[in-house]
């Protein structure tokens, strides 16, 4: 394997801005044919229900069933999977689930209200969604960690029913995924995948109930379907390729940093790994580590493609400039591999998750740290947050005026409504005004 060359940038270059923009550019426009195919599948599922779901499941997953009910996996099968997996896997899943649950319980929002002097009551009622749908990739790409990260916040929020869909191409079921569903408390599981599964969750069929929100990762057909059904249901996000940005002061073992960069590059060829440091010699050392360690990786070809086309090493004047560049990138995962991560964290404004200190590998966050691993990508951390309990709750405003409050505020509303030319609004408020 020949050495790969990583793109080098220097923040002092005159063309740095344009070079950085070019590096970050990612084309997420949906292929026209994919779009047409997804729209057709969704329309069929919406109009034909179970029959369309069965047809597409046979076509795409090579799985023939007499009814959609046959494609549902019962709770006894989930428990059987939990007992069937190796003990070390079961213990690891349970430990991870406990940490994820403990972290998310702290996010739970409570209803609140307050009373004004005249007896008027204002507040907010927080209510969980009735039903959430969880898409879990199947086949070769089976992610039990994704089950925990998506289902547990929903259950902590108090969602009445969590429906999981997972494709099982050729009937191959992943016991670890089913075990994770058992641990997370998933209510119902259907062996469905692709756009047809998203359609079934969004519109409901004779067998699959419709949900209020669909969460979870998937391929381009799943992502496109989620985009299409948004508005009929809520969705978590349209995720782009995975990203990691490491800021290092040059004092961490370069092998550690190289492997941290690999941890995202191995996801797929479009994943992006970036290292920022004020130490040019350290950048050289990490590049040497990358080429030394790459041949030892099982997914070396994917890592090589990702690192060659989308990775970068950026030299900066100091750590403050590193934070400035990081804020422009707004990465999904940000490692602060420095002496004083707390101080540097003060300068960070945009990041999905921030990993503090040399010992905090991003990989821990993917599995068992506790915070959610469903994070905003492609710079959307500028305005988005990690998946959390709050994504499975909605807020209703509470407004209750006393007679004197209605009199006082009715006068204000009357002036504003008449100013907008909305007479019925004004008169509705004026009926509650006491005569002087």
TrEMBL record:
As its record notes, the protein acts as a catalyst of:
L-histidinol + 2 NAD(+) + H2O = L-histidine + 2 NADH + 3 H(+)
The pathway where this protein functions is:
Amino-acid biosynthesis; L-histidine biosynthesis; L-histidine from 5-phospho-alpha-D-ribose 1-diphosphate: step 9/9
Q: Which residues bind substrate?
A: 242, 264, 267, 333, 366, 420, 425
Residues of the active site = 332 (proton acceptor), 333 (proton acceptor)
Q: Which cofactor does it need?
A: Zn(2+)
Name the SUPFAM superfamilies for this protein: ALDH-like (SSF53720)
Entry EC number(s): 1.1.1.23
Question: Which cellular components does GO assign to this protein?
Answer: cytosol
Matching NCBIfam families = hisD
Instruction: List the protein's name.
Output: Histidinol dehydrogenase
Species source reads: Marinobacter similis
What is the organism lineage in this UniProt record? Bacteria, Pseudomonadati, Pseudomonadota, Gammaproteobacteria, Pseudomonadales
Q: Which gene encodes it?
A: hisD
